[in-house]
Design brief:
The radius of gyration is 19 Å and the shape is globular. A five-stranded mixed beta sheet has the order 4-3-6-5-7. The chain has a two-stranded parallel ribbon with strand order 1-2. The chain is built from 13 helices and seven strands. The protein has one domain: Aromatic amino acid hydroxylase (Phenylalanine Hydroxylase). The chain is of the alpha/beta class. Bound molecules: fe (ii) ion. Fe (ii) ion binds next to helix 5.
Length: 313
């Protein structure tokens, strides 16, 4: 095995990756450098800005009372409802004052090691395009609405902002151990589909995958189908996930400090050595050690899920 990540790695420059570490063979556009950053943000036209405004308005009908308080506060602090796709320069100036993060444009999904490197430097890579009316409800590749509306408001929360940076640093270690899938599951069940228990019985969404779509915001927080289980990082990193449908299980944190400490205080070297290369638990499973908030009926999944006409109840 190659040398594992040296704790003193400072990430000032993109670290060299060992030759035996796997990376997805993404084809880099000719105008893009090793950092995968676009030289400038796309200039959005009137129709593109109208798509943003309509997506924004639709989310604001479902999110109050369902989105984490930190997310709603972040939208406000960044004045994200001012109309049109936010200018990344202005956004970064505001965000920089609050938590030292910035938002940078990228052409498409970028290689894991570059993504981790940006996060480790408090730069959030965001898509440089917006969906069209034809793909208004669902897109596979994350666009600027998902990335900026869904992810960036949470980066105004100081503890969450630290968690994201630590996640980026942890990514390099996971790659060296060939346990990227396990760390990917943690990202999936926290950054993309995480829930937080703000008060007894009051579960809110902080994951961007939930917050950037109208159906899952209701499904994740209120529906009877999915499990809602208190987050246990060790268990979550052994749990499979699907990317093409509503989640059969959501994991719930008590606070962002809880999330931060469960992750950062963990001995990942030991964990990666003990983890099997494949996932142990199905994404709908409830297991002995789970602290279950709500045991789902899974009726949405059992009726066939997306494309079957099953109601997301
Ligand atoms: Fe995302």
């Amino acid at each position: 095995m190659s040398e594992l990540m040296e704790p003193e790695t400072d990430f000032a420059t993109l670290p060299e990756m060992a030759a035996d570490v796997f990376t997805a063979p993404l084809r880099k556009p000719a105008h893009i450098g090793d950092d995968w950053l676009e030289p400038r943000q796309h200039a959005y036209g009137a129709e593109e800005n109208a798509v943003w405004n309509d997506l924004f308005a639709r989310q604001m009908e479902v999110l109050p009372g369902r989105a984490a308080s930190a997310f709603m506060a972040g939208l406000d602090k960044l004045d994200m409802g001012r109309g049109g796709v936010p200018d990344f320069g202005e956004l970064s100036a505001e965000l920089g004052k609050l938590t030292g993060w910035s938002v940078v444009p990228v052409p498409m999904l970028i290689p894991d090691h570059v993504f981790f490197w940006h996060l480790a430097n408090r730069r959030f890579p965001a898509g440089n395009f917006i969906r069209t009316r034809e793909t208004f409800d669902y897109i596979q590749e994350p666009d600027v609405f998902h990335d900026v509306f869904g992810h960036v408001p949470m980066l105004t929360d100081p503890v969450y902002a630290d968690y994201m940076q630590e996640y980026g640093r942890a990514g390099w270690k996971a790659m060296r151990y060939n346990r990227l899938k396990a760390l990917g599951a943690l990202y999936w069940y926290t950054v993309e589909f995480g829930l937080i228990l703000e008060a007894p019985g009051d579960v809110r969404a902080y994951g961007a995958g939930i917050l950037s779509g109208p159906t899952e915001a209701v499904f994740a927080t209120e529906a009877r189908s999915p499990n809602r289980i208190m987050l246990n990082v060790d268990r979550v990193m052994r749990t499979d996930y699907v990317i093409s449908d509503l989640q059969p299980t959501y994991f719930v944190i008590e606070s962002f400090a809880d999330l931060f400490h469960q992750t950062v205080d963990r001995d990942f070297d030991r964990l990666y050595r003990s983890l099997a290369p494949a996932f142990t638990y199905a994404n709908s499973a409830v297991i002995d050690v789970d602290d279950v908030l709500h045991r789902g009926t899974q009726e949405y999944l059992l009726r066939g899920g997306r494309g079957s006409g099953a109601a997301p109840v």
